[in-house]
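Recap slide: TerB family tellurite resistance protein, sequence and predicted structure.
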Amino acid sequence: MINRVEKLSLLSEMISFAKGEDNLKQIEYNFLLGVAKQLEISREDFDYLIEHPVTYTHLKSHSERIVQFHRLVLLMNIDNENTPKEVIKLYNFGLRMGLSHESITKVLYLMESFPNKIVPPDVLIDIFKTQYN
């Protein structure tokens, strides 16, 4: 299980990803708030992270990194307005997390074939499991 510092880092990373050059859209805010609740982070702490990002903490668990990558994929596609710049940013986030470039590339490629570009969790896990073994 991940600790509080790692949880805050995950949220901060997601906020940074969503904000990009703009402010958070309401749909992104609501999605991130839902993730905060899943991670047992209070709304006050979540709102604080929006203005005060924390330092990135590398997740030790490979499975937690896959889950975080999946969250980022969902976040990117939540507004159905992903740009090539966002896809590159997602790819780089995945690399920084230590995920294989083959798996990331495959997820991004397959993403286009799913409704709303949402890769089902079982498909995503299979992709990373294949590359991990």
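The mean pLDDT is 91.
The first helix runs from residue 4 to 19.
(End of recap.)
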